[in-house]
Design a protein that fits this description.
12 helices; 402 residues; five-stranded antiparallel sheet; four-stranded antiparallel sheet; alpha+beta; Chorismate synthase, AroC fold; globular; single chain; 19% strand
Length: 402
């Protein structure tokens, strides 16, 4: 059982989306503005569709927070869908004598439409697509914003940037800016390479003209993590597996890697692993007094954090709604037909970074509460401080190094 749990509810064009987050310690400073800032970041990005011009996502904190601080009880978050006004009759929970408008009977290749109508025995794929839609990530970003606040109180910084979009690959600066997000957010595609940014924007424009869509890859970087989060003792406690599951659960994500990921499969061991060094000074405390010459493992070994920056990548396929649809089959007649089109983005890769940050924050906050416990933030901090003191005692007898 996880220490921090969350669940979401709501449909893309329903009245609202909502999240309930359990297990957050009491005493964490939390304002609606903390959540709204992340929701606003999710809505940005070159290549987004008309939906982002309609919505103005703002959270309502319904429970679990009083006077600007968490209570230790479940936190309920609600974000209204402004577009619901245009879909009220389509999405009404009450039965109607008239057949609902905007039925979808020509499933889109790459979407949950067809598998969903067969699994749940529905005639209208709207019963599937409304929940399968990436609009659900609004609730996940809201829940993740709560966990980001907790991690920030523990000295953890999470950021992301786009490393590839539509086949354009960015040249990465070294080292990455710290903090990362303020720099990445200044780019319309959240890319750190100005030349690649221009090429990505041009590729998006060309795809829009062609009625096509684009995918890409984002990188999430987390700094300030303590060594030893997660565990090697059981498959479901390995932090790499938990992080991969969280990222793979994001709509349209088809690949996840940590550190060099798949590239490690082509390297000999001498070039794949990170040599261990001694590190001194206060900055070395979270890693137990050790450092790595490189970070090819992405800050994870044996299902646990190493104290090095956590580096994860997620690959997003192109959005499955095309303005020039692919071939499909009509669910009613069984005859060949072009897939239906819904209003869509050309690409959501810039937004994926923000969503991936939230997914990672939810897992890492859970890992901190799992390891250090505490019903209140002050208690969790004391337990963390005790662990850091334990790590310091281990190296108290080390010989000085010239």
């Amino acid at each position: 059982m996880t220490a921090i749990r969350f669940t979401t509810a709501g449909e893309s064009h329903g009245r609202a989306v909502l999240a309930v987050v359990e297990g957050v310690p009491a005493g964490l400073p939390l304002l609606a503005a903390d959540v709204d800032a992340e929701l606003a970041r999710r809505m940005r990005g070159y290549g987004r569709g008309a939906r982002m011009k309609i919505e103005a996502d703002r959270v309502q904190i319904l429970a679990g927070v009083r006077a600007g601080a968490t209570l230790g009880s479940p936190i309920a978050l609600l974000v209204e869908n402004r577009d619901f006004e245009h879909w009220r009759d389509v999405m009404a929970p009450e039965p109607s004598a008239e057949p609902p408008r905007r039925q979808l009977t020509r499933p889109r290749p790459g979407h949950a439409d067809l598998a969903g109508v067969l699994k749940y025995d529905r005639a209208d794929a709207r019963d599937i697509l409304e929940r399968a839609s990436a609009r659900e990530t609004v609730a996940r970003v809201a829940a993740g914003a709560v966990c980001r606040r907790l991690l920030a109180e523990l000295g953890v910084e999470i950021g992301s940037h786009v490393v590839a979009l539509g086949g354009v690959v960015a040249a990465l600066p070294g080292p990455l800016p710290a903090p990362l997000d303020p720099v990445a957010d200044r780019s319309p595609v959240r890319c750190l390479d100005p030349k690649a940014e221009q090429a990505m924007v041009a590729r998006i424009d060309a795809a829009a003209d062609a009625g096509d869509t684009l995918g890409g890859v984002v990188e999430v970087v987390v700094r300030g993590l303590v060594v030893g989060l997660g565990s090697h003792v059981a498959w479901d406690r390995r932090l790499d597996g938990r992080l991969a599951a969280a990222l793979m659960s994001i709509q349209a994500v088809k690949g996840v890697e940590a550190g060099l990921g798949f590239a490690l499969g082509a390297l000999p061991g001498s070039q794949a692993h990170d040599e261990i060094l001694r590190a001194d000074g206060p900055a070395a405390a979270p890693s137990g007094g050790f450092a790595r010459r490189t970070n090819r493992a992405g800050g994870l070994e044996g299902g646990m954090t190493t104290g090095e920056p956590l580096v994860l990548r997620a690959a997003m396929k192109p959005i499955s709604t095309l303005m020039r649809p692919l071939q499909s089959v009509d669910l009613r007649s069984g005859r060949p037909a072009p897939a239906q089109s819904e209003r869509s983005d050309v690409t959501a890769v810039p937004a994926l970074g923000v969503i991936a940050e939230a997914a990672v924050a939810l897992v890492l906050a859970d890992a901190y509460v799992e390891k250090f416990g505490g019903d209140a933030l002050a208690e969790l901090r004391r337990n963390l401080d005790g662990y850091l003191a334990q790590l310091a005692r281990r190296r108290a007898g080390w010989e000085p190094v010239d």
